């Protein structure tokens, strides 16, 4: 099992809960950081002293206070740490629910596991730690299904542009004007209508309002 773990979490009660979960797994060598800059400093020190961490468990959101930080959130922390110690295993423990954001954490930031803060999250965290220890990425079944739904339809930049304009209150009939002014093609009304209909059909959505809401939930707009 992992020997040395760093917990980056700004809420003390949640940090204590994570510590209890690690205690249940007989993991006693834990360090804690309530700020991203502090977490990065601990990793830097561990590298200098050649006493590396095996696993980082981090939240994504960190509340701002009087202590000004260079790293503002968990994503920035993950990116900075990966540059220093690419082999470090990382679990994101967060209330984030948008499938698009979760998918990008694996594909763009190279995390190894994601556990949503919710009911039974302690059990999920234990499963994640066990899976990652044997080099298997971890994402709970319900989140896998949501991410699969996201990946079943590949959103192009053109798709995202259309939905973003709808989310900004631009009427469908006026979208071609924006596309023409920005030299984006195809830019006819029929092309816009056809593309929006294809998205709604593939995603099993009936109207533009639902399409905008769906894409916001995924985190792609």
Describe the structure.
- This is DNA-binding response regulator, NarL/FixJ family, contains REC and HTH domains.
- Keywords: DNA-binding, Phosphoprotein.
- GO terms for molecular function: DNA binding.
- Residues 4-132 form the Response regulatory domain.
- One of its GO terms (biological process) is phosphorelay signal transduction system.
- The chain is α/β, with parallel strands linked by helices.
- It has two domains: 5-142, Response regulator (Rossmann fold, 3-Layer(aba) Sandwich); 153-218.
- The protein is 52% helix and 11% strand.
- The chain contains ten helices and six strands, in the order E-H-E-H-E-H-E-H-E-H-E-H-H-H-H-H.
- It has helices at 12-24, 36-48, 74-84, 99-107, 121-133, 141-152, 157-167, 175-181, 189-203, 208-218; strands spanning 5-8, 30-33, 55-58, 89-94, 113-116, 138-139.
- The chain has a six-stranded parallel beta sheet with strand order 2-1-3-4-5-6, with helices on both faces.
- Strand 5 (113-116), helix 5 (121-133) and strand 6 (138-139) form a beta-alpha-beta unit.
- Helix 4 packs across helix 6 (141-152).
- The longest helix is centred in the C-terminal third of the chain and has 15 residues, at 189-203.
- The model has no long low-confidence stretch (mean pLDDT 88).
């Amino acid at each position: 099992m992992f020997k040395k773990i760093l917990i980056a979490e700004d809420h003390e009660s949640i940090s204590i809960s994570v510590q209890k979960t690690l205690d249940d797994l007989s993991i006693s060598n834990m360090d804690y950081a309530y700020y991203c800059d502090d977490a990065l400093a601990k990793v830097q020190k561990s590298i200098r002293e050649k006493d590396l961490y095996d696993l980082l468990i981090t939240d994504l959101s960190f509340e701002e206070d009087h202590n000004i930080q260079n790293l503002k959130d968990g994503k920035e922390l993950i990116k900075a740490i990966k540059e220093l110690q690419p082999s470090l295993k990382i679990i994101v423990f967060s209330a984030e629910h948008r499938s698009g954001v979760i998918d990008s954490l694996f594909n763009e930031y190279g995390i190894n596991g994601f556990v949503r803060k919710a009911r039974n999250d302690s059990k999920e965290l234990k499963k994640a730690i066990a899976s990652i220890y044997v080099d298997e990425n971890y994402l709970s079944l319900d989140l896998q299904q949501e991410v699969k739904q996201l990946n079943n339809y590949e959103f192009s930049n053109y798709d995202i542009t259309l939905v973003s304009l709808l989310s900004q209150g631009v009427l469908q009939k006026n979208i071609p004007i924006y596309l023409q002014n920005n030299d984006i093609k195809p830019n006819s009304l029929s092309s816009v209508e056809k593309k929006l209909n294809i998205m709604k059909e593939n995603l099993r959505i009936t109207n533009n309002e639902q399409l905008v809401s769906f894409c916001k939930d995924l985190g792609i707009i």
